[in-house]
Specification:
Strand content: 15-25%
CATH architecture: 3-Layer(aba) Sandwich
Number of strands: 7
Oligomer: single chain
Structural class: alpha/beta
Order of helices and strands: EHEHEHEHEHHEHHHE
Number of domains: 1
Shape: globular
Bound molecules: acetoacetyl-coenzyme A
Largest sheet: 7 strands, parallel
């Protein structure tokens, strides 16, 4: 029987590439999405994934969603916390809502979903959790105090949960994508983006499937000895 994976933000951008790659690797994927019904329908048609509308910044909604998925499909093998938003702006101009929206969607969601799946994974003594952080959580980024804080938070969260979960056969890892061709980067000011691309030694932006492949490995049984690690996939833009 195929393994079951949950991918947040799994119907667009990097998340859609992750969904596709996991399906190519024989998994059944439930792609969670928040608002874009059209993209969810297209993702379902294109990949054969299952979709579910969940507000991942709501603790109770996450618990209910995981309960439903588990009752319907049984064991949850993989959780990929991928969904994220930007509300860029320098701190002296940032309002509280820009801060809260990014922390809620990018970081609190990670707690909400892990808190719901961890008891199940501990019971089955198997699990793979992959948290999609960012290069900007590693190095900081002008105009992204909110996003950099959330993404750096995911790295610390990953390490702590990895320590707690290792004895139960559960691995927890983080991936830090650099600048990847998605709607998120397409929304950036083109001068700012061109300047960033000049700083990427590989000479181009990343492709969503290049993150998907890394997720597929970390989500597989083969990656049992890899945990608490942070993987940069950034074309050499920032070396840690
Ligand atoms: N470093 C240093 N100084 C900078 C700077 C930088 N990177 N960017 C701008 N400045 C300077 C400007 O030159 C300007 O200086 P002067 O006043 O002396 O002219 C000053 O800072 C103010 O700049 P802006 O007028 O541009 O400030 P703003 O508030 O209008 O815009 C911003 C700020 C929208 C955040 C803009 O800087 C920006 O778009 N930055 C890029 C943010 C970014 O990289 N987002 C990534 C989105 S994709 C993503 O997040 C995915 C992922 O994980 C990688």
């Amino acid at each position: 029987m195929s393994q079951l994976a949950i991918v947040t933000g799994g119907t667009r951008g990097i998340g859609l590439a992750i969904t596709k790659t996991l399906i190519d690797n024989g998994m059944t994927v439930v792609a969670l999405f928040q608002g874009n019904e059209k993209a969810a329908k297209a993702a379902k048609e294109e990949t054969g994934c299952l979709t579910m509308k969940v507000n991942i910044s709501d603790f109770n909604e996450c618990q209910t969603a995981i309960d439903k998925i588990q009752k319907k499909h049984g064991q949850i093998h993989v959780l990929v916390n991928n969904a994220g938003i930007t509300r860029d702006g320098t701190l002296h101009k940032m309002d509280q809502q820009q801060w809260l929206d990014v922390i809620d969607t990018n970081l609190n969601s990670c707690f909400n979903l892990c808190r719901a799946v961890i008891p199940l994974m501990r019971e089955s003594r198997y699990g793979r959790i992959v948290n999609i952080s960012s290069i900007n959580g590693q190095k900081g980024q002008f105009g992204q105090t909110n996003y950099s804080a959330a993404k750096a938070g995911m790295i610390g969260f990953t390490k702590a949960l990895a320590l707690e979960s290792a004895p139960r056969g559960i691995t927890v890892n983080a991936i830090c994508p650099g600048y990847i061709e998605t709607d998120m980067t397409a929304a950036m000011n083109s001068d700012v983006l061109e300047n960033i691309i000049r700083q990427i030694p590989v000479g181009r932006m990343g492709r969503p499937n290049e993150i998907g492949e890394m997720v597929a490995f970390l989500s597989s049984e083969k990656a049992a000895f890899v945990t608490g690690a942070t993987f940069s996939v950034n074309g050499g833009q920032y070396l840690v």
